[in-house]
């Protein structure tokens, strides 16, 4: 997953409003002055580099070696972000952090309940006392009603793709079949295919698992509205205090 896609990921994600995730981060981390930050599922490092502006240390991890390679290649000499290949479900670092984030529905790629629970427990152990864990996921309604059975396409001279969204075997699960055509220097196009699966769970399940992992307070917001708590929306944002 993301093996071949890593090289075109930034092009593919060019229209993503990363600044809105930065707003989410800044809204709920004001109590942390010059924090250490762990970015889970950092991809090519786009969020890690943005978070570095207000952090004394940023570590980004991703399961994909190819994504980590792209992140390291983008890193400027003035940047101190540390990138490592690691599995979120098996997270085992030798330090704790003030803030841990997992943005852009990374946690939806963990499709088994027990592995989600294990991930929350490991994340909690990597947070300092009083630390904050921020993440976002697709809602059940969004997965079931708006994504399932949809077909997305995108065509430019440099890159084209067709994206099929198929219902998974479990509630809240969606399987993605993606076909890409990438322009080569000789004018021909290279085709490659990827398959991804995401799954989301009910809000009360996430809350229960977070509380079992040792988080003392969990708040939920929806669709980038951080002024009032809400559990109804397409994308849900969790604010978890250690």
UniProtKB/TrEMBL annotation:
GO terms for biological process: methylation. Pfam families: Methyltransf_31 (PF13847). Keywords: Methyltransferase, Transferase. The keyword Transferase applies. It comes from the Bacteria. Residues 32-162 form the Methyltransferase domain. The keyword Transferase applies. One of its GO terms (molecular function) is methyltransferase activity. PANTHER family: METHYLTRANSFERASE, RHODANESE DOMAIN-CONTAINING PROTEIN. This is Class I SAM-dependent methyltransferase. It comes from Allobacillus salarius.
């Amino acid at each position: 997953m993301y093996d071949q896609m890593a090289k075109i990921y930034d092009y593919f994600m060019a229209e993503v409003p990363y600044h809105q995730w930065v707003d989410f981060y800044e809204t709920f981390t004001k109590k942390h002055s010059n924090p250490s930050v762990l970015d889970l599922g950092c991809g090519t490092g786009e969020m890690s580099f943005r978070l570095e502006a207000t952090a004394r240390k940023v570590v980004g991890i991703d399961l994909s070696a190819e994504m980590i390679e792209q992140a390291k290649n983008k890193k400027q000499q003035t940047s101190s972000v540390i990138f490592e290949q690691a599995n979120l479900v098996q997270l085992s670092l030798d330090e704790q952090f003030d803030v841990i984030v997992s943005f852009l529905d990374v946690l939806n790629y963990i499709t088994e309940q027990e592995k989600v629970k294990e991930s929350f427990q490991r994340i909690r152990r990597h947070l300092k006392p009083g630390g904050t864990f921020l993440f976002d996921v697709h809602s059940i309604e969004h997965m079931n009603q708006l994504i399932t059975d949809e077909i997305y396409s995108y065509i430019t001279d440099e890159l084209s793709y067709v994206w099929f969204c198929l219902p998974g075997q479990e509630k809240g699960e969606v399987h993605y079949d993606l076909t890409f055509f990438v322009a080569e220097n000789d004018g021909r196009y290279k085709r490659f295919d990827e398959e991804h699966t995401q799954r989301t769970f009910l809000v009360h399940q996430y809350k229960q698992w977070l509380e079992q992992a040792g988080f003392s307070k969990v708040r939920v917001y929806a669709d980038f509205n951080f002024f009032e708590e809400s559990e109804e929306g397409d994308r849900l944002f969790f604010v978890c205090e250690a």
